[in-house]
């Protein structure tokens, strides 16, 4: 029977996921964890077939640990279940090694279908995500400025664009203020911008934030 790990820092979300999956007799939830470090620690000790992974967790974010999960257990399927819309993180999550991406606004039956798809060795791509991916690989589409950023730079850019201060970003990502300031400088240089207000305008215009 496929073994599933739930990784989300909100107890109510984990409880809801367990209730949804409980009706599936062929899926076995073997554990739940609340941060990125616990994900890796759990997988070092327990074989697993699928991880339901939230991207916004304490200590280590989802994007950081997707590739590490694949190194630890290469066969494992990773299905991202996130509050972030597909436009923000789906493509990067798939590039990192995830087999599917769902928002937490998805219907329960879509989650179950996605889990079965990933457990069977496939990838779960929604219709809207398929359009985003098609745009990504269209060679005639010029590269957007944010696509030049690394995953960490992109993450910091979105947080700054959403109005968070350098100090707030540092606290949330468990990094120093100096490190975030360095990231901010790199981001502004790569995107040819001068301040956070320009980042916010750009992110809203590209539908990266609301």
Q: What would your notes on this structure say?
A:
The chain has about 210 residues and is of the alpha/beta class. The chain folds into two domains: about 5-135, Rossmann fold (3-Layer(aba) Sandwich), CATH 3.40.50.2300; about 145-205, Winged helix-like DNA-binding domain superfamily/Winged helix DNA-binding domain (Arc Repressor Mutant, subunit A), CATH 1.10.10.10. The protein has helices at about 10-20, 35-45, 60-70, 85-95, 110-120, 125-135, 150-160, 165-175, 175-190, 195-205, and strands spanning about 5, 30-35, 50-55, 75-80, 100-105. A five-stranded parallel sheet has the order 2-1-3-4-5, sandwiched between helices. Helix 4 (about 85-95) links the parallel strand 4 and strand 5 (about 100-105). The chain is globular and about 55 Å long. The model has no long low-confidence stretch (mean pLDDT about 90).
The CATH homologous superfamily of the largest domain: Response regulator
Write down the CATH class of the largest domain.
Alpha Beta
What separation lies between the terminal Cα atoms?
41 Å
Number of domains: 2
Percent range of helical residues: 40-55%
Uncertain ranges: none
Q: What is the N-to-C succession of helices and strands?
A: EHEHEHEHEHHHHHH
């Amino acid at each position: 029977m496929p073994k599933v790990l739930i990784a989300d820092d909100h107890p109510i979300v984990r409880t809801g996921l367990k209730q949804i999956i409980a009706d599936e007799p062929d899926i076995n939830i073997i554990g739940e964890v609340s941060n990125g470090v616990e994900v890796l620690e759990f997988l070092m000790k327990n074989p697993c077939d699928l991880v339901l992974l939230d991207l916004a967790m304490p200590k280590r974010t989802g994007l950081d640990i997707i590739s590490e999960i694949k190194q630890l257990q290469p066969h494992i399927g990773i299905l991202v279940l996130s509050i972030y819309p597909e436009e923000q993180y789906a493509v990067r999550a798939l590039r990192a090694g995830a087999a599917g991406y769902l928002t937490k606004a998805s219907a329960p039956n879509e989650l179950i279908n996605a889990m079965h798809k990933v457990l069977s060795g496939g990838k779960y791509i929604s219709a809207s995500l398929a359009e985003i991916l098609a745009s990504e690989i269209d060679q005639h589409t010029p590269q957007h400025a944010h696509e030049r950023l690394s995953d960490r730079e992109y993450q910091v850019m979105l947080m700054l664009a959403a109005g968070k201060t350098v100090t707030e970003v540092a606290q949330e990502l468990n990094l120093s203020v100096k490190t975030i300031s360095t990231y901010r400088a790199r981001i502004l240089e790569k995107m040819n911008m001068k301040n956070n207000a320009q980042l916010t305008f750009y992110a809203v215009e590209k539908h990266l934030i609301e």
